[in-house]
Amino acid sequence: MFKKLAIVFTAIFGVLLVVPTIKPELAPYFPSWIQPIPLGLDLKGGAQLLLEVDTQTMFREKSVQLHDEVRSALVNRDKGVIKFANLHSTGDAISFNVRESDDVSRAKGRLRSALGNGVEVASDGNQITVLYTEKQKQEMINDALTRSIEIVRRRIDALGTKEPSIQTQGGKYILIQLPGVDNPEHIKDLIGQTAKMTFHLVNENVTDAQIMSGHAPAGTRFLPYMNAPGQMVAVYSRIEISGESLTDSQADFGQHNDAVVTTVFDATGARRFARLTTEHVGERFAIVLDGKVLSAPTIREPIPGGRGQISGGFTLQGAKDLAVLLRSGALPAPLQVIEERTVGAGLGADTIAAGKIGSAIGVLFIILFMLLAYSTFGLVADIVLLVNLAMIVGISALFGATLTLPGIAGIVLTLGMAVDANILPFERIRDEVRSGVPTLRAVDLGFNRSIKTVMDGNLTNLICALILFQFGAGPIRGFAVTLSIGVLTTLFTCMMLSRVLIDFYMNGKNKKIGFIKNK
Question: Within 13 Å of residue 511, how many CA atoms lie on the same side as its CB?
Answer without folding.
Answer: 14
